[in-house]
């Protein structure tokens, strides 16, 4: 190549680089500040939304609800998953995982080297010198498949972790729905008992003024009235805390108490269904699926570490001219020699991490099986106890009605009636408590067995692809 041709080629390359510079600058990202908020974004019931577009599961559809008619359990669960503030932040992690997968599939940027020298003294003929080169890391091509597999599995783990968080929020919403409905029933029972005690105490005060009642009898009825009132207020405080918990779960402003309707519909497990669900639990629970995805990611990391034990190779070409008009063209190879055991250390770390994840998954699986059996046994005990208490309540309810008639007819004194009625109220409260405990245990069991919350709702039904 002649001197003039080489110079023309060099300046053409420079002009091409200058021409492409605006395009490269246009592709660059720009910085825009995003300040933090200084106020809460909790909403009111009127602004709650149930848009299926904010879910990432397959087969998701729109769900319409009407707060004025009352929210059933499916409504509460759906709104909790869609509007929970923590889940809104959690779902943004999917964007990070997608960006990491994109990054894992990209090859390293090529390195361009260029230089220019102008002679100021020396024997003639003197010319301007230049050099240009292009270098690319070829070893990244070898590990690209495993990097992508690692990032893909890591993205699956993030997605499944988010799905498990959604399930936990959904089942927590179920628990709060069950608790609020039970507390409403308890408030009605205790409110009626409190009203009876207060009415009796006011009648006692009148009777005491007319000398028809002793102070000892008044003290007994006063203690009963104060105890009933204390129990009512204690339940009122617990109910208030439950409502606050539900408001927080739904992303509502504190103090909003949406109208609830319907009944808790929860699955009951026969012995055959229970053992079948237990056998398929690792395939249905998102948290166990997430651990499996994390293990797959580490498997790819082990393969990547093994491939990286070989010398890292970079290849490049170069073109240059010195100040004595000597023109050259050539190529360069860069090798990273594995002389000091760095590659073997990376392999050892990757294998040790894989062994840890393997054992951690087994521990989680064993723990899940133990929890499932414990809840299944607890549910059976609660069911048996509930049958017994319901039978007692049915008998006491009939007796209480008879005692009420006798009391109204003047054939039973106040103290005896209130004692028997108090016992009936206590058994009734126990039945309500046991029913709520059994429903909550069934809800927990369904979660641990990998039963999707509210299968007929708009929520994702389980781990996908």
Write the topology of this structure.
Elements (H helix, E strand, L loop, with lengths): L2 H24 L46 H11 L1 H7 L1 H13 L5 E7 L11 E9 L1 H71 L5 H36 L20 H9 L1 H4 L1 H22 L4 E10 L5 E10 L5 H67 L5 H35 L17
Q: Report the CATH C-level class.
A: Mainly Alpha
CATH fold annotation: Outer membrane efflux proteins (OEP)
Helix coverage percent = 55-70%
Low-confidence stretches: 52-61
Average pLDDT score: 83
Order of helical and strand elements: HHHHEEHHHHHEEHH
For the biggest β-sheet, the strand order reads 1-2-3-4
Strand content: 5-15%
Distance between the termini: 58 Å
The fourth-level CATH homologous superfamily is: Outer membrane efflux proteins (OEP)
What characteristics describe this protein?
alpha+beta; 465 residues; 4-stranded antiparallel sheet; 8% strand; elongated; 11 helices; single chain; Outer membrane efflux proteins (OEP)
Tell me what the structure shows.
This protein is an alpha+beta fold and 465 residues long. It has one domain: Outer membrane efflux proteins (OEP). The chain has eleven helices and four strands, in the order H-H-H-H-E-E-H-H-H-H-H-E-E-H-H. The chain has helices at 3-26, 73-83, 85-91, 93-105, 139-209, 215-250, 271-279, 281-284, 286-307, 342-408, 414-448; strands at 111-117, 129-137, 312-321, 327-336. The chain has a four-stranded antiparallel beta sheet with strand order 1-2-3-4. The longest helix has 71 residues, at 139-209. Mean pLDDT is 83; it is low at 52-61.
